[in-house]
Each structure stands twice: as C-alpha cells, then as structure tokens.
Amino acid sequence: MKALIKIGGSLLDDPASRNDIAGQIARLAATGVMVTVVHGGGKQMTRFLEERGVQSTFVRGLRVTTNETIDAVTKVLAGSVNTELVAALAVAGARAVGLTGMDAALAWADQLDPELGFVGRVVSSDSRLLHTLTEAGYTPVVACVAGGENGQVFNVNGDSMAVAVASNWIVDRLLFLTDVPGVLDGDKQLIPVLTVKGCKALIDSGAARGGMQAKLNAASDAVKGGVREVCIVRGSDAEIVTRVFGGEEIGTRVIAK
After folding, report:
1. Known catalytic residue at 42
2. What 3-state class would DSSP assign to 5?
3. Quick check: pTM over 0.90?
4. Annotated catalytic residue 43
5. Distance between CA 171 and CA 181 in Å, rounded?
C-alpha cells in the first residue's frame, strides 16, 4: 500500500505534537506501508519573518512571496521545519529522508499569479525518487518548495503539493491532517463520506468556504487524478494516523463516486 500524509505546519510547531505524529508514522511504515510525508510550515514562516520585522501579506489565502520571503521559505520550510520532522521520525525508528520538490524534479512549478510573487503552481511531478526510496524502506519527507524551469524557487501551497505528488505517485490513500474533525454540512454535522459530486454541491451551497473549500477542491483533484481515497481528519486527535490506517471510520473520506 502507498500512502501520502500531509501535515499542516501548526501540528509540527509543538515538539510534543511533532513527536507524537512522527511516532505514529514510523509505526505505520514499519508495517510495510510505503509512506511519503508532505508538510507545510506557515505558522513558523510568519514567526520567522515577524522576528525580522517583515509583515506577511496574504491574497486569497496565499502568502505573497517576495525575494525576502522566498529566502525565508528555503530557510524555514526546507530547513528547520523539514529537519526537525526528519529528526523526530528518526528517533521514532523511521528511515526518514528530507526532500523538497526540487529534488529529482519531484515537483516542478510555474508562477501562479504575478501579484503573489514567488508562489508556484505545480505543473509536473516525477515520483521515481519516491518509488526508489520507499521500495528500499525509506520515508521521504517533502517540504512544500518547488523548482522552476529557469532556476526559480517557488513557495507552493501544501495541499496542492500533496495532491500533485500523490496523483503522480498514484497512492492508495492521501491523508490530510488538519485542525478540524472532518467536513461538516450546513448543520455542522460531520459527513463521513463524500463523492466528488458531493464536494461540489457543498461548495456551491456555501456550506464549505475558505480553507475547507480549498481542501475539498484539492481532494476532488486527487481522486480525479487516480488517488483511491482522501481522508480529512483532525491531526491532534489521539493516535489519529494509527486509527485511520487501522480501518476506523473517522473524519471524512472523499472518493470518486
């Protein structure tokens, strides 16, 4: 089985939370599941910039990425956040390998919108490196940084990066570890299973907005791209990774139909 786990940066900011999730992933990999991790780090990025007197600006939920900001992206996302997660996985027993989208053309991007600066949209993904590493028992850990054809470095939305990599690698399960228990309907009730058509209906009705709308669009793109199912769960719930892969019905599953 192949699985991609996308971890939001807020779950990695606290050492206890980071170590707990790393332990669950390490135990999952030890069962023979080929796991790749994609992580964000927006909270850490904002703090790093604020400490240097740089205020973050967001347009449509995406961080405007200037020359100064993209330098911070490489230092924080590809640097400290990635290294800390790799270290936590190693302590937990996983053979973790830190990567970015630039390694072996894992994620190649072009500019999403000039207004956003160095924010990229992944246009191609070459997953052969992931295949090589996971077949040998390693756990790739990918920061949301992509390369461009003219040597640019792009800041990429974590969900978009996860979908692009998962679709090219053709995973059985894409797991989004978020800060919500799953997808809620208009009455704030958890929806256990959604199809692509159901995702669109929730968005069109206005029940899913903002971050959840983006998450549902990403999940829909993933299953349309060949991913068997996408699971959206709350990453801080106890033993959440173990429970999902143990077959417990938790959070929201998005499937093709």
Report:
1. yes
2. strand
3. yes
4. no
5. 22
- With CA atoms as reference, report the closest residue to 62 among 119, 145, 147: 119
Does the pLDDT value for residue 241 go beyond 90? yes
151 in catalytic set:
no
Q: Domains, the chain, ranges and CATH? A: 2-171 (3.40.1160.10), 177-233+252-257 (no CATH)
Q: Residue 141 and residue 118: Cα distance in Å, rounded?
A: 22
User: What would the mean pLDDT of 15-44 be, rounded to a whole number?
Assistant: 95
Is residue 210 flagged as an active site residue? no
The rounded percent of the chain whose pLDDT value lies above 90 is: 59
Question: Does the annotation mark 224 as catalytic?
Answer: no
**CA–CA separation, 121 vs 140, rounded Å?**
21
3-state secondary structure of 33: coil
Cβ pair 194, 183 in contact under 8 A = yes
Question: Which one is catalytic: 2, 8, 9, 101?
Answer: 9
> E strands, the chain, where?
2-7, 34-39, 58-59, 62-63, 96-100, 108-111, 119-124, 139-143, 145-147, 153-156, 173-178, 193-195, 229-234, 252-255
Given the residues 20, 41, 120, 159, the one annotated as active site: 159
For range 66-88, the mean pLDDT: 92
Among candidate residues 8, 23, 42, 198, the one labeled active-site is 42
Catalytic residue among 41, 98, 101, 215: 215
Q: Strand, helix or coil at 93?
A: coil
Residues in the chain: 257
DSSP 244: H
pLDDT average, residue stretch 201-206: 81
